[in-house]
Amino acid sequence: MAHNFFKESPFKTLISFHKLIEALEAIAVTNVDYRANYATALLKEIEPLPEFRTGIEDLSIISENETLIKHLLADLFPTALTNNEIKAVTIPFQNFTFNYTERFKKIVTEAGVLFDMAIRDFNEHQFYVMSCTLILNAIYGQKIDFNKPLFYDIPNKKGIMNQYRILYNADFLEIIATEKAPKLSQDDIDLLMDNYDNLALWKEKFPVESWILKGFGIAILFDATTESSISKLKSNLLKPEKEQIELQENFESIFRSIFKITDLRVGVIVYNEEEDKFVKPTLNDKSLTSFILADSEEVACKNALFSCSFENLLENKKIISISNVEKFAQQPENEILGNHLLKQNIQSCIFAPILKNGLLLGVVELVSGYPRELNSINACKLDLILPYLIDTVERYNTDMQNQIEAIIQREYTAIHPSVYWKFRREALDYFETSSHNKGFIFKEIVFKEVYPLFGQIDIKGSSEHRNECVKEDLKNQISALIHLFKNQESKINLVLLEQRKFELDSLLTQLELPLKADTEQQIQLYIENEIHPILNNSEAGSTEALLVANYFESIDKKSGLFYQSRKKFDNAMSIINKKLASLLDKKQIEAQNIYPHYYERFKTDGVEHNLYIGSSIAPSKPFDTLYLHNLRLWQLQTLCEMEMKHHQLKLSLPYELDVTGLILVFSSPISIRFRMDEKRFDVDGTYNARYEVVKKRIDKAMIKGSSERITAKEKITIVYSHTNEEMEYLNYIKFLQFKKILESTVEQFEVEELQGISGLKAIRVKVSNEHRKQIPNNFSYQDLLDELN
């Protein structure tokens, strides 16, 4: 691992342990014998090394005295915690560390010797300014909040990049001025605060090595990889629309927490590119605050209010920061804008462009009633927030331009007939109000208190079958190439030919092992780059040329590989999915007569479907749980019919595949919401998300106490939680057994505990395929009741 210091710094860095040594000297004269003896012995060890106290410039001294330094720092790096803490000695903001804990050492070792541990997105400019702000705060009593999260991106042994958040302990550092350090006035400091980007100015006020940084810092890391992943997940789960009434309060609460400014206020304006003006966004009949527009609804960008100060924002898309508005207003060219802000009691402010693909969408305004609270330094924190604003402003601009047909076709895509009415009503509301309400916001499409039904017919062992087909094709192709090389009578270099035959034999041996994720790609590249050029360029006789031509005719033009076995598999999968999906769609038309309900299906390695039934989907029709029971019986019988259909197809398939059936029973009503970004319905809320989690995990679940999957070929597995669900489905099974659709044997077992899910049970029963040539007619829930009575 490489260590790299930034080339220029306002500090001359002296790594020193003087504060620790002073503490040891104090301990050495105490009455606690074991502590005093230990301190005395350690002081004696370091006595020949005065650099430990005066300051180390030659870093080789550190590596030469690694063990002694470890003993000196023992109180700060306790052995009991060395395998838990991620900690090392460092100089703040520099890419230099030593005296690692064992856990840190392990992380660095796994990263590899070529790894350069540098702070993410942290360049020499940032380093220099951050170092200067240390001096401003420590020596000049400023309270500049320059801290933003710093991370190390460190790969682990598997090559996965982990993110580690860095915390610094600077208790053992001191800053000392040299003769080269200029004295700064408050005007100098104010000038610096308004010119974060002017590195030359910072170097003028803080010349290189004009200060001494003596001592050492401690870098404490914690693994933030999971938090980063959770943050991404939260971004995906954010509602398409926020509660507009609370939007202003939410903005200000978030920004105040980040900037640590109690009176921080936030405003937003939208940029109208066509008319070159800023407009105030209107949400839910309420306009968001804007300090630039104040009482105006819109202002042209050529207005005198936008002085030359806004050139950076409009033309260069750069942030504008004014740390002292009163001073700013004293300049003639800034007088209009400055006085406009002072009238609103704004003493410092930041105006940041909201950009998407280089285009200006709007401006976020941060203002404070105190000078120097907002400045060009803490404006960098906006990098953490602006991504969340981009989609909001972009969505606002899009919504303002949509028409009814565009809403239905572009925003909602194909809408199931059972819920189309709600989308149409929302579109009509937009049409009726858009002429006098420029800020019309579409309501979220939510259906509450609906009962979910999930079922699937899955291809058993599809991944294993696919891998076996890949291996078979690769083996056949390699064997064909070996056969070609054995029959070559061309002028190919014999040594090269023998080498390639040996490599092909090695690949055949490799394919006897389980298939790895990249094996197919590696073999494809090898054949394309090493083998095909030989065949294309060889001067073979007519017999060999015919063999080569036949070989090239056998390969797939897109992949350059044999595709015979995989083609059979893919065709079989396609036939099964097409036939079963067609049957399900046909039966669904009949099921809508039971009670209108939402239906969606997906083709994956099989066919799965979601149904949602409840009064909110068909409010004009009274709802009763009788309809739910009818639909559950329909679903069970339909899955049986799909399995029977597969049984009929099985012998005619180009590749033999078995299927399994699965039903998830969930008796609690949930809410579903239309996800604008995914163009589909999904469960709404964290409580309801449990259903979605169960649905995604049960497919691969095992029977409790065994290694057997809960699903099995030619069988339907019904997963449930409650006794009443068990009794309900046992009645369905008994009825379908009577109708000769299901066999007599019924298996009941508990499902293994899944992550965060326990208490699931299952019923499994085989579909009867003996002597059945036709798919039976559907039976209703009333038929079942009649039979039971």
UniProtKB/TrEMBL annotation:
It comes from the Bacteria. This is GAF domain-containing protein.
